[in-house]
Amino acid sequence: MRRRAAVLTTGALAGALALTACSGSGSRPDPAELSVGSSYMPQPVSADMAAGFLTITNKGGTEDELTSVSSDVAGEVTMHSTVGGAMAEKSSFAIPAHGRLVFRSGGNHLMFERLKRAPKQGQTVTVKLTFGKSGPLTVEMPVKSATYNPSTGH
Fold first, then answer.
1. Alpha helix (H) ranges present in 71-145?
2. What's the predicted TM-score (pTM) here?
């Protein structure tokens, strides 16, 4: 009787291990699937600095992060968060799986510093977004009036 119980236990263990091995392979979440929308730059009121706003949507099953931003119109583009009226420069922003990262007036935003030229309403500014896991995205950001306030809130 003990021998039969040992054989059944060994068989059950082997079966459980086989099922675990099968279910563990190939069941990774979908990679990040990033897209950009609602991008704009209000026409700068300063000769050397401008702000930029956009939304990055991730339809994939893996989170990613925005690690840097660059543009041919500026010497440097920095990323900032604003919480409780306090602005802080950030080195990256998380983009959750099946979520979005929003840059809007009064919140997270891009700062285009040391402008090489003053973008005017009606023009576009080329912006390159670099991510931790995904390939870079290039966005043509339209320049809007200095007082532009989108109906979407960003």
1. none
2. 0.80
